[in-house]
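dumping this here before i forget
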Amino acid sequence: MSSKLATAKSASDVMSQGIVSVEANDSIQDAMQIMTEHHVSGVPVVDEHNRCVGVISTSDVVSFIEADQEAMEGDIARTENWFNPETQKWEESIFSHEMLGEYDLVPVSDAMTRDPLTVGPAMPVVRVAQTMVEHGIHRVFVVNDDQRLQGVISALDFVQLVAES
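structure:
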């Protein structure tokens, strides 16, 4: 087995640093733009002290928009197909890119998942992988004792570890 995989003992050994984030009062439109620009399907939501208070993903945004549109008078003109990176499947939705412009004033806090699953930097990397599998999640945020964001570990990071071994 590769030395990197064998020596990767903790979350801090495999986490990506310098990750992009949004704040709860940023707009959903801004969050989607950041995710698109950085080619990620979700970002942490942080407070003014860089504490991780939530996560917003493309799935969260689509679910929020669908619920909002269904709550309206019900006259949806059309649906669109989109690829959900969380499920790795094509899905049909009432969401359209043009529709996203309607959400430029809606804060991320309205659609985010609160209290995301986090791990400490010293957690063994094998336990991080087990936790992600147990909870069916594609990313986990690494935080220190004060809940300040340190990094992120994604499923792709584990693929990269195996590929390098």
